[in-house]
Input
Amino acid sequence: MAVSRGWQTSPAPRTASRATIGRRARRAFAHHAAAYLFLLPAIIVFALFAWYPILKGFALSFEHYQNNNVGLPAHWVGLDNYRALFADPSLNFGAVWLNTLQFTLYALALGYIIPLGLAMMINEIRQGRAVFRVAFYMPVILPTIVSMFIWQKALYDPDPNGFLNEVLGWLRIGPQPWIADQGQAMICLVVAATWAAAGGTMLIYLAALQGVPAHLYEAAEMDGAGLWRRLYHITLPRIRVIMLIMLLLQIIATMQIFTEPWSLTGGGPVGETTTVMVTLYNTAFGSNGGAQDFGQASAIGVLLFCALGLFSGLYFLVTRRFSQ
Output
């Protein structure tokens, strides 16, 4: 019985432990109360302009909400908006996702490798490095619509006197339709988008390369290591974390591509460059002559949000792992 009474009184230390934890939590909150007060305005701004629109978008995706001058109120339709996305032949939603994935893969093939190569070349330059940094970064300064206008009207002009067609003429190659051709439009879009954004990524890689200790390269050179051996055994291992993070960030960014296809090709020809974001815009604002269907557009946004949430979660896991 003594053992039994002792066993019955054993929860007392556990209760005391919980009280101790509560006191520590209150003490920690009081200690950081000033910091929480300073954070409160930022939290309010995020709640109003970021978190609330996200929640509102989720709610709208389950409602029928069209602004077609009839003035009908929004009403609950459940999953009908999601079903309509794949049932509506005018949207061709499956092909839209394939276009987005195709653009992402092409953009990774060019926009991931080219900035890294440029950064490595500039890092090897001993004199005039700043000039090359500015030269390659200048396209980023231009607004995206201006950049796409330059490519559309000057470089991708299908006229034989267009810049690129004139260059091809010097090589005895006939003029090309460029963005007016279904087989060439996506590649043209990727090239223009890479040119407009590669400079910013290049500077990030260059900063990472300049963080590699110089004595490692000096020791490798003394041992007779060439450029490729230094690249493989020193450079790439030292910046692999930045490379992985940039890969995930670029996947997230390219899957949200909108301004480039909207301003360069308008999603054409024949929907060849219509991405998920272009479809969302056209659905929400009736750009294809239909009603402004905010409910269906919100459903598109929710699906894209869920897809990008997977990559965002992977990004946080990677950054957390390598920051420990």
